[in-house]
Amino acid sequence: xxxxxxxxxxxxxxxxxxxxxxxxxxxxxxxxxxxxxxxxxxxxxxxxxxxxxxxxxxxxxxxxxxxxxxxxxxxx
Length: 76
Fold this sequence. Notes:
This protein is of the alpha+beta class. The protein has one domain (3-65). Helices cover 17% and strands 42% of the residues. It is built from 1 helix and 5 strands. The strands form 2 sheets. It has a 3-stranded antiparallel β-sheet with strand order 2-1-5, covered by helices on one side. It has a two-stranded antiparallel sheet with strand order 3-4. A hairpin with a 4-residue loop joins strand 3 and strand 4 (51-55). It is globular, with a radius of gyration of 14 Å. It starts with 6 loop residues before the first strand and ends in an 11-residue tail after the last strand.
């Protein structure tokens, strides 16, 4: 898989504490970031698992983690 087609795990945090986690390509992450910067309203997010329509005014944070990251401990 090339870097341009790499999907990242994205966590979207909403007002009130709810979160959702999906895998998105960089192009979709950039499109979502642009929509968040532009203001409020509704935005459709297409991902591998589902399609989301989110109220941008309710989004508190967006966190994207690349697939190359690891979780846990590594040997020295």
